[in-house]
Amino acid sequence: MTSIEQLVRQHLNPFDPTTFKPGNFWKEIQDETQEVSSIHQEIVDGVEQALDNVNRDRQTRTLMLLGDSGSGKSYLLGRLKRNFNDKACFAYVGPWPDSQFIWRHVLRQTVDSLIEVPEGQSEPQLIRWLRGLDILKRPGMATRLLGERGAFVRDMRMSFPSGLYRPKDFFGVLYELLNPENRIVAYDWLRGEDLDDEDLRLLKVRNAVNSEDAAQTMLGNFGTIADSTQPIVICFDNLDNIPKRSDGKPDLQALFNVNTTIHNEKFKNFLILISIITSNWQKNKDAVEPADQYRINEKLTLRSISLDQASSIWASRLRPLHRRADPVPASSIAPLTRAWLEHEYPGGKVLPRKCLILAEGLISHFKKNGKMPPVQPVLPPPPVNMRASFELAWQKEFKETSKQVSRLAQFSSPELVRRLQEALEALGVTNIQHAILPSPSYKSYSLGYQSTKRIGIVWMEDSNLSSFCNVMKACQKITQQGTRDRLYLIRASKLGSTSNKGHRIFSGIFDGSPHTHIKPDMESVYYLETYHRLVNAAAGGELVIASQTPDIAQLQVLARQSGVLAGCKLLQQMSSEEGDPSPTPPGDDMETAQRYILNLMSTHSWMGLQAVVASTQEQVPTLSVESVDKIIQSLCKTNRLNQIDPNAGRENQILCWVPNQAA
User: Fold this and answer.
1) CA distances from 576 to 182, 411, 573, 579 (A)
2) What phi and psi, each to the nearest 5 degrees, are found at residue 488?
């Protein structure tokens, strides 16, 4: 027999803050069993009605989802995707790196979402969407058309005789999507990747979709052919980390320009959802043109939830432990009590995240002290190691990122530059200048700053060698003008042959000192993307670390104190080039696991041995049970951990954190 109290002390806190952070609903799969259907049901109904209207008359609509930080906006987007993915394709669009690239960003992230495979499906949204076209539903038509590109393109053009951008190329690339061998290149063309000549020849198209106008009209193509298939829901989220205007205000006008154009150009079959914090909107809406605000068809506001709904959230998180408990707990939220909710929120209303943070603090107190605190004016704060809590959040995010990022081409060059800038700011680099490259088309591929030298950085991954040549000409201007003491070119993509003009200019600049070419590794991109995701969460007040919600400045301090960016080889190379002290990189898997265990135990106080081993193996899957056991025994011998009743059966052994021996 194992009571619920024993199980809670043995296992991870069910309200672990690393599970609070929402984000891209295609990247962070939500636990459907934790959904409380009554919460925000009126918003779900409103969105469903709008989607049904788009399906009925094919006219695009825009809804704004307003709510306080912690009200569940991002989680709601994931819920909408789960509930209505059979009615529409869903696209998630996060913050763009530069407003001059916003159409290309929207197109890229829309197509990236369309190539995701929904849960329970075997094919990406886009392939399922294509197979829903009326022309492919006709008896025998699919077999005939898919066997011959010319017939497919011809019949598709007859079905959609007007209103399409580059219809021959567009339908030709859609045909290649249905060929698994060419699918990745076809995806890249549709998402606006600046492809090289070889890939363009493979797709039998003239040129890439590499301008704002081209990206805009390409997005319209999807809306046009959606007339005979499903509409597309585009969800704009995390709008707290978008570029700033010259007056320091977020450039919301850029997004509203996109929305207005979609309406004015009569793009059909889209439902646009703009998710934004209420205070952010109230503070900055005057900077958005009234005519563009008028294009919002309806504003839907997420309200605080009732204490009954908060109790349901608690119960959903505790349910897995309750199912294992013997005897059966008397309450669905044991060992928590409703009295704490009523005490903390006497008005009977609470934001979802606040009730989660309260539960996390109560369970932490219980795990440490073996009993719940009495209901009192202030919950005694647990002695929390902020650094350890942050490192746990980092390790979880890094692990997820490394699984989701498979190639550098997932990011545009401006996106990579934005992520590098955020990391440099975290390391204390100040007064970073964005867009120093003297080229209107490629300036967003660059940044600069002053350290002991005047540094310039260009990150250019476009595979098109003509574009590469143009960037090299711009770099040449910088070196000739002498405005930078050191220029870094970051590029993993090919440089072309020695006979290529761009390669010759490159060699003249970067083959010798002082300018340097760095070929980035994928792991460095994992570091930059992981930190970027945490920045997005912190900017929107969605990042919870040890019951606190750090802003970006506080996140930067945590990143510096913990040294989580030390393993980024790209940053190491730049530091060594500048003569700065090189950060100490993380150790091997055994050292990584030991640090994880120490962080885990310092934040949870008590845990069952088996739960610690399982959690460590999930984080460092290369290690065996025996290896993790060896680390734990070493930590017990050095009095960092204490093993309660080591003679008990393995399933009953408990580990205890020894706080005066912090790592």
Assistant:
1) 41, 26, 5, 5
2) -100, 130
pLDDT digits (tens, 9 = 90+) for 457-499: 999 999 999 999 999 999 999 999 999 999 999 999 999 999 9
Which tokens hold the place of 107?
């197109």
3-state secondary structure of 442: coil
Q: 305-306 and 349-350 as β-strands: parallel, antiparallel, unpaired?
A: antiparallel
Nearest-angstrom CA–CA distance, 223 and 269: 5
How confident is the model over 19-47, as pLDDT tens digits? 887 789 998 878 888 899 999 999 999 99
Predicted model pTM: 0.93
Torsion, Cα 402 406 410 411, to 10 degrees, reads 40
Report the distance separating Cα 441 and Cα 464, nearest Å: 14
Residue pLDDT, tens place only, 222-241: 999 888 789 999 999 989 99
User: Quick one: which H or E segment has residue 301?
Assistant: strand 298-301
* Burial track 196-233 (b if 16+ CB lie within 10 A, e otherwise): beebbeebebeebbbeeebbbbbbbbbbbbbeebbbbb
Helix, strand or coil for residue 146?
coil
Contact, 419 vs 531, CB < 8 A? yes
Taking the C-alpha atoms of residue 47 and residue 62, their distance in angstroms, rounded to an integer, is 10
- Let me know the angle formed at the C-alpha of 85 by 215 and 529, rounded to the nearest 5 degrees: 55
Distance CA(557)–CA(426), nearest Å, equals 7
Residue-wise pLDDT tens digits, 424-458: 999 999 999 999 999 999 999 999 999 889 999 99
DSSP-derived pairing of the beta strands 486-490 and 232-236: unpaired
Q: What is the pLDDT of residues 322-355, one digit of tens each?
A: 999 999 999 999 999 999 999 999 999 999 999 9
Spatial separation of the C-alpha atoms in residues 484 and 515, rounded to whole Å = 9
Q: How far apart are CA 156 and CA 257, in angstroms?
A: 31
Nearest to 84 by CA among 25, 136, 132: 25
87 Cβ contact list (under 8 Å, min separation 6): 51, 52, 55, 230, 231
What is the Cα–Cα distance from 245 to 262, expressed in whole angstroms? 23
Q: Which residue has the tokens 């000409």?
A: 473
Residues 6+ apart with CB under 8 A from 349: 303, 304, 305, 306, 307
- Write down the architecture of domain 41-301 according to CATH: 3-Layer(aba) Sandwich (3.40)
Q: Which residues pair with 456 in a beta bridge?
A: 448, 487
CA 265, 268, 270, 272 dihedral sign is positive
From the list 316, 318, 340, 314, the residue with the least C-alpha distance to 328 is 318
CATH 3.40.50.300 domain locations along the chain: 41-301
CA distance 383 to 12: 17
Residues spanned by CATH 1.10.10.10 within the chain? 589-661
Are 271 and 63 spatial neighbours (Cβ–Cβ below 8 Å)?
A: yes
The second-level CATH assignment, the architecture, of 589-661 is Orthogonal Bundle (1.10)
DSSP symbol at 582 = P
